[in-house]
Amino acid sequence: MDENHHGSSFSNIRAYSLALIQTPKRFALRAGSVATTYEEMTRIRTRSGSNMQKTLRWYDLIGLGLGGMVGAGVFVTTGRAARLYAGPSIVLSYAISGLCALLSAFCYTEFAVDMPVAGGAFSYLRVTFEFAAFITGANLVTDYVLSNAAIARSFTAYLGTSIGIDSSQKWRITIHGLPDGFNQIDFIAVAVILIITVCICYSTKESSMLNIVLTILHIVFILFIIIIGFTKGDWKNFVEPSDPKKPNGFFPYGATGVFNGAAMVYLSYIGYDAVSTMAEEVRNPTKDIPIGVSGSVVIVTVLYCLMGASLSKLLPYDMIDTEAPFSTAFQGSKSWGWMSNVVGVGASFGILTSIIVAMLGQARYLCVIGRSNVVPSWFAKVNPKTSTPVNASAFLGILTAAISLFTDLNILLNLVSIGTLFVFYMVGNAVIYRRYVTAGVTNPWHTRLFLLCFTFTAIIFTLTWQLVPPGKPKVFILVACTVIAFAFIQLFQFAVPQVLKPQFWGVPLMPWIPSISIFLNVFLLGSLDKPSYVRFGIFSGLTVLVYLLYSVHASFDAEGNRNFVRKDVEMPNFPDENDHGDDVHV
């Protein structure tokens, strides 16, 4: 198939100059273009060359979900969120984030079952608008790269703790000429990233089996820590800090601290998003994906809450270490000092599994983004021998290793949290839009108006919560926003009929669940600090610039004047294909 019959915008300087002149026209044509499920699963998928093998089952997905989430959440974000934001109420922070993640997981699952491709949220948004998909895809890949870099640096801290070494002094090299936050060089983190990159390039199934083994070992350590925490800890630590001058009680920083903590630990749940990117390699998507995605979120949320409670019982919140909270919790005890080493070993297993899963996910995102031609199609290629996206895996592995070399954990966590929340917010909007809008058949403005008004109401609620001082006016505005939000959902449900009914699995209680997911994601976004928004704004601006200078022209070259529109009848899944086991479909 000759997709480049319009000529390349990048063949020479003159061609590129003409393309830049036509940028407004091309942007108007491509930014609003819509791909269909059929296109995503056929013509666009063939751009990778070889197919990915269908080798994964539901237990693989649960294993990948547990491995991807548990290591990052408990052993990276818990210490910082508990000490700086939530205190002992970190338990509730995890519960709120878990509920938010579960609602978002329902949205992901509907898309993944109906469209089992490797692109995750990027592919889901491509069936709405290309530009929104590109912005979301760029945020997703960035989230994965930064979170993997953060987790790899945390691995250095826990590995040092497991053998009784202060990694910040012994294993990290401080360069005084660099600014704070970027001046500690971590070669161990780089080595971990590069070794895992080689593993995931080799085989998906073998990577999954390695993940399952490490995850089982990790869960055993987690259960041991929970038992020790509840049997040896002190309940007074739930309400009394070690420093009497610090705020006390279960909510030392109030409800605001709980939600600020929830926003930070939301990084913990990025693992289930990685599971959805494995949909193209699942044998039976209609059965395995709902169990794998939702089941892993529920299990992990329970573990997080128990781990948070265990940590809060072991130490007053103001004594919790921000980088290695669980291992350092045992260092002050003579009889339980050896537990610090045990926790370090267990955490190291968990961190390795989370990096494996996230790096599998980030490569598949970039692979599918390459299929759409908004980044070079070289990233889309699947190696015929390994059936893995080797090009995308290697490129992102090297980039992640470079960032993990010098960037501080706190800088990475804040930027990742805002990007993750933004992506989950977009997917909630996308599932509603897809259910209620068919291009050329229905009026999209009814749905767009609902989504805009509902988001605006959530923003007003969030700003009121964060900025208005306590009192009756604040209560009145919050209650009014809640009532208005519910009224919008109810009115939309009765006034606008659904045009697409999922054949195999759909989000229940439509549009309530995705709407609540949207509201919660907006609320958690409002809990992040100003520097996070500044960094996010700068990155988003650069993303738009890349789209205007490269992606819109590459996409136009590939598709020409072809403007995808959703067909009246979406392409159904193929149950017979899912039963072929390990066959490779070409």
TrEMBL record:
The keyword Metal-binding does not apply. It holds the Pfam family AA_permease_2. It is found in: Membrane. It comes from the Eukaryota. InterPro entries: AA/rel_permease1 (IPR002293), CAT_C (IPR029485). Residues 505-555 form the Cationic amino acid transporter C-terminal domain. The chain crosses the membrane at residues 58-77, 84-106, 185-203, 210-230, 250-270, 291-311, 342-367, 388-406, 412-433, 445-468, 474-492, 504-526, 532-552. Its main location: membrane. One of its GO terms (cellular component) is plasma membrane. It is a multi-pass membrane protein. Keywords: Membrane, Transmembrane, Transmembrane helix. GO terms for molecular function: amino acid transmembrane transporter activity. Belongs to the amino acid-polyamine-organocation (APC) superfamily. Cationic amino acid transporter (CAT) (TC 2.A.3.3) family. This is Cationic amino acid transporter C-terminal domain-containing protein. The lineage of its organism: Eukaryota, Viridiplantae, Streptophyta, Embryophyta, Tracheophyta.
